[in-house]
């Protein structure tokens, strides 16, 4: 038996594919390359060949698997309901077990980003870099990375360990997942979510004992690490009625991997609270906001209506960018492992946004937000839909717009 881990793709998963090819036009890597081995069907065939023993699990097979974005657009398009995402996670676990040294760059990055202390130290350096305008002197990858980040705080403003009470008696207790990069880099999103949930009557806790959701570990084939992280989170969130997650990649992972029915993506929670009449609405203003559906919303959780209903409740007109849901190329650590392909997809997505003429685009996943900001021209805002809603109805203050940098030599 060529497979060696309990997470290996199963025969049932692999045999479900009838090779019809209907998924091919939805696959970003196939669209870019036209190469069958960069398609869902080709990847499933490679897994089947390894499973039957006719193909060794070597570096070439590892590259076929790791060129996949794990965006799951193929899964949403497949009439035979092939569970491609699950099969690919199993294949990645097999690659990690068979070739532990060959994927070093991704693995080191995956382990580091899951450690809050390391992310916080990197945040401090990035914040200093933003203040001193270091972007101009940095080499390509670091320059674009710094451009993709929001304006970062000088000092730690972590919400981990905090408790937020509603005005009256709480209707229930919601636990907020702090996340690896959400807490240091996307504090305004967390604050908007907390403001909205407390306005609707929830007591919100951000448990101190929580850790990374485990999505990156699973994507990198470290399934055992992901299980340990899930166990830690299960203990940390034991006392809450609901676990709210405001990053699409984290919620998709937690819904599918163990924390179960208590987990709800933040946009689902807020759309539900709006429908129940627990939150204020603003009359239409005619202002158009682009909607970038994260793959982990659109394909993995089939969430598309909720961000749009939240924007409508805020008085905005949602504008669809991408009816066929092409991945923006962020895809966890994909931009580290495959910067050229990630950059191509990022530029395609930025062009789609720019063509609509919107001044802002809503995105509910930190990786997508960084990717959009990296590739969009200056002046188009990228923000979480709950953040845009909370600002519009006055639950949090809108950010002060940054002054455009004055051209060298211009007269003040
Ligand atoms: S994964 Fe689904 S859509 Fe793609 S070739 Fe197989 S059966 Fe067809
Ligand atoms: S998950 Fe995305 S990149 Fe991977 S095969 Fe499916 S559509 Fe293609």
Summarize the topology.
Layout: H1 11-15, H2 28-33, H3 40-52, H4 59-66, H5 73-77, H6 84-98, H7 104-113, H8 116-131, H9 140-148, E1 163-164, E2 172-176, H10 182-185, H11 187-199, E3 202-205, H12 215-219, H13 223-236, E4 242-245, H14 248-256, E5 263-265, H15 266-275, E6 288-292, H16 295-298, H17 305-313, E7 317-320, H18 334-337, H19 339-356, E8 360-363, H20 366-375, E9 381-383, H21 385-392
Parallel strand pairs: 2-3, 2-4, 4-5, 6-7, 6-8, 8-9
Antiparallel strand pairs: 1-3
Helix pairs in contact: 3-6, 4-6, 9-20, 11-21, 15-17, 17-21, 19-20
The structure holds iron/sulfur cluster (2 copies).
| General shape | globular
Order of helices and strands: HHHHHHHHHEEHHEHHEHEHEHHEHHEHEH
Main sheet overview: 5 strands, mixed
Determine the strand fraction and express it as a percent band. 5-15%
The number of strands is 9
The helix fraction, in percent, is 40-55%
Mean of all residue-level pLDDT scores: 87
- Helix count from the secondary structure assignment: 21
